[in-house]
Amino acid sequence: MPSWLLAPFLQAKDTAVLAIGERLLRILGLPYLFITSMVVLNGFFNGVGDTLASMFLSLASLWLLRVPLVWHLSGAWGVDGVWAGIAAGYVLSLFLGLAYYALGAWKRDLRRE
């Protein structure tokens, strides 16, 4: 299935690039639901005025989760480990964000008029 998504962007004889793109979509396809949910959650925190939470979640997602996961997984799985590390980092950061949401600490920044 991923090949028909990628084909319009590639030249007909680019089968090697198509194969790499197919692997990427197979690894990151489902986790994109988590990635977009994390983006929405960060937007929510920004919208209610808790911009520090959004910033810290983004920084933690990148530097504490994704970079170490990519570094470790790429050693064992190569480029597939890079993509798996990216996916796992976003999934874990979404759960961190949901935990922060459940705590309700973001409510302290709401301004009542």
Strand content: under 5%
Task: Give the termini distance in whole angstroms.
Answer: 52 Å
How would a crystallographer describe the biggest sheet? none
Structural class by helix and strand composition: mainly alpha
The structural domain count equals 1
Uncertain regions spanning at least 5 consecutive residues: none
Choose one word for the global shape. Answer: elongated
Helices and strands in order:
Layout: H1 2-6, H2 15-28, H3 31-47, H4 51-77, H5 79-103
Give your account of this protein's structure.
The protein is mainly alpha-helical and 113 residues long. It has one domain (30-109). It is built from five helices and no strands. The protein has helices at 2-6, 15-28, 31-47, 51-77, 79-103. α2 (15-28) runs parallel beside α5 (79-103), α3 runs antiparallel to α4 and α3 packs parallel to α5 (79-103). The longest helix has 27 residues, at 51-77. It is elongated. The protein starts with a helix and ends in a 10-residue tail after the last helix. The model has no long low-confidence stretch (mean pLDDT 87).
List keywords for this structure.
single chain, 113 residues, mainly alpha, 5 helices
Concise synopsis of the structure shown:
This protein has 113 residues and is mainly alpha-helical. The chain has helices at 2-6, 15-28, 31-47, 51-77, 79-103. It has one domain.
